[in-house]
Design goal:
Blueprint: E1 2-6, H1 11-16, H2 18-27, E2 32-37, H3 42-45, E3 53-56, H4 62-78, E4 83-86, H5 91-99, E5 104-108, E6 119-121, H6 132-137, H7 161-172, E7 181-186, H8 198-211, E8 215-220, H9 226-237, E9 246-247, H10 254-263, E10 266-270, H11 273-278, E11 285-288, H12 294-297, E12 307-310, H13 331-334, H14 338-349
Helix pairs in contact: 7-10, 8-9, 8-14
């Protein structure tokens, strides 16, 4: 049996599919299981013990994208997969699924694309209060695989010894020791609907430092938001007698970020890919949710590992499709106060 999973992006969405990988390995212990993913999320799958192969789908633009896809389709067809599960449902993923020529093709019931699948599954509405892991798990229904629980099938990202050693070396050189309490604060997100205001991050970080001088704060961000790290760090330093509590850290990839989070006492951030990477560790999590619901995005792992979702409470515009803020002020995020987040952090640390 040769099985291909297709989930091209994004980081958090790929994390949400990892329970599916484990379930397939249990159900088909001798199968060759491959996963097709774009480069931005490949680190989530690297060293996954349940996969035999990770296949990269280049993400270029224009004519080059077309040429890449034609070449990729030929490669996939030569691999002679018996089954393809399209965990994505987008036009590109659907086209690559049918291009494999696999006799069994499982996907969501989607307008204009459903006929390419031999088995179709109803897709949960985007704003429905149901966890994204369960939406992916639905695609295992035609295979007779049972229910999914966070205790039995948590999300996972395999730790890497090299990344763990690099992070330990970098922190040790600063130094950050066992006597310190390491706090990771991720300040960026994929869109404005998930990005807490910078001034709120500043106030929250200052409150955490003033409450316990043993704390060492690492501010992280994605490649497109590195300036936000500088701005927030500079604003915090203006109010500190010493720069010592702010720890410089330049995560080169998602693997090192995971190693850093695993070393931390707590992770703080919005509803973004790194928050879901944090879910693959045992580190306590505090997440600020804007337009998304906790029922859909909370960490999918054993509840014995602490996690708090902080949100603005009921709003007539929440949840939303994150295309246009109807009130215009992103109140689902701006209404969350630094005091609320600090209280949640102190609670999970206890």
């Amino acid at each position: 049996m040769r099985i291909l999973l297709v989930r091209l992006r994004l980081i958090g969405d790929v994390v949400f599919t990892t329970p599916v990988i484990r379930a397939l390995r249990r159900h088909y212990p001798d199968a060759h299981i491959a996963y097709l993913v774009e480069p931005s999320a490949v680190e989530v799958l690297r060293n996954n013990p349940h996969l035999n192969e990770v296949i990269l789908a280049p993400r270029r633009r224009g004519v080059r994208r077309l040429l890449d896809d034609v070449s990729l389709a030929r490669r996939l067809r030569r691999k002679r997969f018996d089954m393809v599960i399209d965990l994505h449902g987008g036009p590109r993923a659907a086209w690559l699924t049918v291009a494999t020529g696999a006799p069994t093709r499982i996907g969501y019931e989607m307008p204009w694309r459903s006929r390419i699948y031999t088995h179709r599954v109803q897709r949960s509405p985007d704003l429905f209060p149901r966890h994204s892991v369960l939406n992916q798990w639905d695609l295992l229904g035609p295979l007779g695989i049972g229910e999914c629980t966070p205790e039995h099938d948590p999300v996972e990202m395999a730790p890497d010894k090299t990344n763990t050693a690099r992070v330990a070396l970098q922190l040790g050189a600063i130094p950050v020791t066992a006597d310190h309490q390491l706090v990771v604060v991720h300040v960026s997100a994929g869109n404005a609907f998930r990005r807490w205001p910078e001034e709120s991050f500043v106030a929250m970080i200052l409150a955490l430092i003033r409450t316990d001088p043993r704390r060492r704060i690492v501010i992280t961000a994605g490649p497109s938001d590195e300036d936000a790290v500088r701005r927030i760090g500079d604003a915090v330093r203006q109010h500190l007698p010493s720069p010592e509590p702010l720890v410089p850290f330049f995560d080169r990839d998602l693997g090192e970020l995971r190693a850093l989070i695993a070393r931390a006492a707590v992770y703080i951030g919005g509803d973004s890919g790194p928050m879901h990477i944090a879910s693959t560790t045992r580190t306590p999590i505090v997440a600020m949710l804007g337009p998304t619901l906790a029922e859909r995005s909370r960490p999918w792992r054993d509840p014995k590992f602490a996690a708090e979702m902080v949100d603005a409470g009921p709003l007539p515009c929440r949840p939303c499709n994150q295309r246009r803020c109807i009130p215009g002020d992103f109140r689902c995020l701006t209404s969350i106060t630094p005091e609320q987040v600090v209280t949640a952090v102190e609670r999970v640390l206890r």
